[in-house]
Amino acid sequence: MKEHGFGALRVSSLYNMVSASDRRYYPLYAKCVELDIPVRIYTNMNYATDRPYDLGHPHHLDQIAMDFPELRIVAGLSGWPWVNEMVALLRRHPNLYADTASHRPRYFGQLGSGWEQFLQFGNTLLQDKIMVGLSFEAFGIPPEPARAGLGQAGRVRSAGWASAAARSSRKHDSSASGGYDGSP
User: Fold this and answer.
1) Mean pLDDT value across the chain
2) Could you say which of 23, 75, 81, 157 is the most buried, measured as most Cβ atoms within 10 Å of its Cβ?
3) 140 DSSP β-pair partners
4) CA-CA distance, 108 to 138, in Å (whole number)?
């Protein structure tokens, strides 16, 4: 994998309808441990009507993290709407991280959005485990307004969240998914 320039593995049950905890992925997870590269796993509800809505439920990460405690896992999209479970798993597993890609930052600070516990712990106990991913291209907005949305979220401290990415890449010297670096 590394000789081909891969710095991480991405698993997305949204597309293949195979949950991330399916044992067929285990040889890939073992290879990631061997090569010391992270895996980013789709962790979010999907709105497709032709597949189960909970393919990306965070509970799949729990089994993987128990079976591969040394595997660095990034919960892509942070597990919404199962945010409470995601927070619990982030606290439980030392090598589990989350990114906020594909969510509009302005909604993080809105009461009733489902992100309240994520923000509370993301700004305290979990500040080194949450990476900001803005996905501004997916929303068709330039990077500056996307970044400004973080400020509108009020309680979000993007610098604290992004520190997880910096620490992870320094600690492991690999190209783990990182926070937004300002480049288009």
Assistant:
1) 80
2) 75
3) none
4) 17
Global pTM reads: 0.77
pLDDT (0 to 100) of residue 119:
86
CATH class of 2-172: alpha beta
- Tokens at 90, concatenated: 């982030």
The dihedral over CA atoms of 57, 179, 95, 48, expressed in degrees to the nearest 10, equals: 10
Convert the pLDDT of each residue in 13-41 to its tens digit. 999 999 999 999 999 999 999 999 999 99
Mutual orientation of helices 83-92 and 59-67 as an angle, nearest 10°?
10
Tokens of 171: 């600690």
User: Which segments of the chain does DSSP mark as H helices, in order?
Assistant: 13-16, 26-35, 59-67, 83-92, 116-122, 136-139, 143-152, 158-172
- Across the beta sheet with 130-131, the strand order is 9-11, 39-42, 73-76, 96-99, 130-131
